[in-house]
Amino acid sequence: MNRGLKSRHVQLIALGGTIGTGLFLGAGKSIHLAGPSLLLAYLIAGIACFFLMRALGELLLSNTKSVSFIDFIEQYLGPKTGFVAGWTYLVCWITIAMAEVTAAGLYMQFWYPKLPIWVTGLFLLVILFLMNSITVSAFGETEFWFAIIKVVAILLLILTGVVLVAIHYKTPVGYASVTNLTNGNFFPHGLTGFFLSFQMVVFSFVGIEMIGMTASETKDPQTIIPKCINDVPVRIILFYVGSLLALMCIFPWQYISPSSSPFVQVFQGLGIRPAAAIINFVVLTAAASSCNSAIFTTGRMLYSLTQKSGNRLGQHLGKLSHRGLPTNAIFFSTVMIGLSVILDIIVPSGVFDFISSVATTCFLFIWSLIVVAHYQYRQQLTPAETSQLTFKMPFFPYANFFTIFFMIFVAIILLFQTQTLIALIGSVVWLVGMYLFDFYRTRTTS
Questions:
Q1: pTM for the predicted model, two decimal places
Q2: Dihedral, CA atoms, 91, 92, 96, 97, nearest 10 degrees?
Q3: What gap in Å lies between CA 37 and CA 195, rounded to an integer?
Q4: Are the CB atoms for 279 and 107 separated by under 8 Å?
Q5: Nearest Cα to 366, choosing from 335, 398, 396, 407?
Q6: Phi, psi of 52 (to 5 degrees)
């Protein structure tokens, strides 16, 4: 495959895939649930994600020719687990992209209320498909600038918060101050609210593993991959924690609405009239960025999964173009994402929301497999081979155990709310069904 991704591309791909509507639109719900203790939840989740990324990085550097991290799951945990993980990850990203295409259409109606959702969705998919089909560096450049817009918006908020706190600015609900963070209580809803916030916190990190799809197309991966993996989790924690800290210093957390964007609420409260339009543009960019990442990811995953297929469709999808791109797989996955336009008409929104929730919950399974695969990889190395590693997982194997226990902890948290419980049950049913399907498939082919 064509190695056209530079360091800045890889870093912003992971950032762009992670910082999205969960922060710009959904942070209000998390703040309302946990109050200032949400900052601690992000720090704990960030540590787990850092260990996840270090495990992934060590696997990637063990074989930089691998198309995706699913290759390592298959190698160290068996072909059945690799099959289930690969198709689960593919369906997860297609579902997420479908939701983002629909969201983009809704965001566009902010300016053009009569514009049909499918027009925006179709236009977006055509443009992103063309960008993904030219060269991999074209995708990287597109994602770089999408991510830059989100990063600039967050940095402006953080800078605004620092200035307003420094001058003790008068807001509609008081004064901008660090004391707005707690008002004497860091855990306003006790440990219950703090624990329940982990569901939104962890799922806001979905996409961080996308670096695992870039190693085979990255220039000088031995240098770039370690640098990006060390930098990205820290930057994500900085952006999330920094922006939430700024929000709760400007407005006391009690006054931040759980049903609207806290960014819009704070900027409008400061008298910035076009705040809603600005944030709408940012979230439109975030939706396009997520969809762009999904097309890149699903194209590579489909190419990887069908490479060894014996049927005609699989052979067609498992080919590279003369530019070193899986163009056929990219086109096929884009068409599948485009079905969201039809689903918007046929499938009730509640059903699609449920499917999206199941897909998001499945990321706990994917992340856990990456950490377990890394553990198995290290167990197979001799002491001499281990000593030659240049990018070792810190605190191995305790970091692996901590990350796995953290994923289990989040899964347990999902049991305590009806919506997340249903999604968790749905994801378990999906995974069991995939294992049974693979068992039937292997029996009939053998």
A1: 0.88
A2: -40
A3: 10
A4: no
A5: 407
A6: -55, -45
